[in-house]
Design goal:
The protein is an alpha/beta fold. Helix content is about 60%, strand content about 15%. The radius of gyration is 16 Å and the shape is globular. Bound molecules: BIS(adenosine)-5'-pentaphosphate. BIS(adenosine)-5'-pentaphosphate (AP5) binds near residues 11, 59, 86, 125 and 145.
Length: about 190
């Protein structure tokens, strides 16, 4: 199974991605985490993306697509399944990601969309801010990430609907309830 996740900040891409990966034994490719690791390690790439990530802006496509391609090649070497968290963020990125994945025989077969309201998401991320101290978890940047999601990421849903691989789950419920519905829906598709 090859799953990509499209969801606003705080909807549970990381949380549900981990559950899916464990349940189906899939390789996880988490673009935001890879970027944050580069920033923490002070690599050249990390220095380039740091101001963008800290302001809640998008990192250039070439960087993201290289990280994605590396992750999908790892997934291919490990058996072929994956959960991709973070790509795509724009329609142009969705099309480019398709081309990159197609070239290595690793296109997604499910686009999992977790839906949730902005005020719930702001609340979740402010709560996380008190625990994890992510540089982009302050109210102004959270709202900027949400604005960007609504403007440029949400339109990718129509693209996956047209490809016939869109699966939408209501993520406004407790984590366990969302997980159960996600796993049941993915089992049904796999079955
Ligand atoms: P990224 O790391 O992908 O951040 P994000 O999209 O803002 O998403 P989050 O990680 O904040 O939330 P999530 O949906 O994973 O939710 P989580 O499970 O953690 O990207 C960071 C930055 O990197 C971007 O802003 C951009 O700069 C750059 N970037 C990344 N990908 C890019 C790309 N493709 N192109 C260009 N730039 C890119 O949950 C959040 C919190 O809520 C947790 O505390 C969790 O415990 C809680 N929670 C989860 N589910 C529930 C629930 N059902 N009920 C209650 N609480 C819940």
């Amino acid at each position: 199974m090859r799953v990509l996740m499209v969801a606003p900040p705080g909807a549970g891409k990381g949380t549900q991605g981990a559950v899916i990966a464990e349940h189906f034994h899939l390789h996880r490719v988490t673009i935001g985490e890879l970027l944050r690791r580069h920033v923490a390690d002070g690599t050249e790439l990390g220095r380039r993306v740091r101001p963008l990530v800290e302001r809640g802006e998008l990192v250039p496509d070439d960087i993201v697509l290289d990280l994605m391609r590396e992750g999908l090649l790892e997934a291919r070497a490990l058996g072929g399944g994956y959960v991709l968290d973070g790509v795509p963020r724009t329609v142009a990125q969705a099309l480019a990601a398709y081309r990159v994945a197609h070239a290595i025989g690793m296109t997604a077969d499910v686009a999992l969309h977790l839906s949730a309201d902005d005020e719930e998401l702001v609340g979740r991320l402010l709560k996380r801010a008190g625990i994890e101290h992510r540089a982009d978890d302050n109210e102004a940047v959270i709202r900027q990430r949400l604005r960007l999601y609504r403007e440029v990421t949400e339109p990718v849903l129509a693209y996956y609907a047209r490809r016939g691989i869109l699966l939408t789950v209501d993520a406004m419920r407790p984590v366990e309830v969302v997980s159960a519905e996600v796993l049941a829906a993915l089992e049904a598709r796999a079955g």
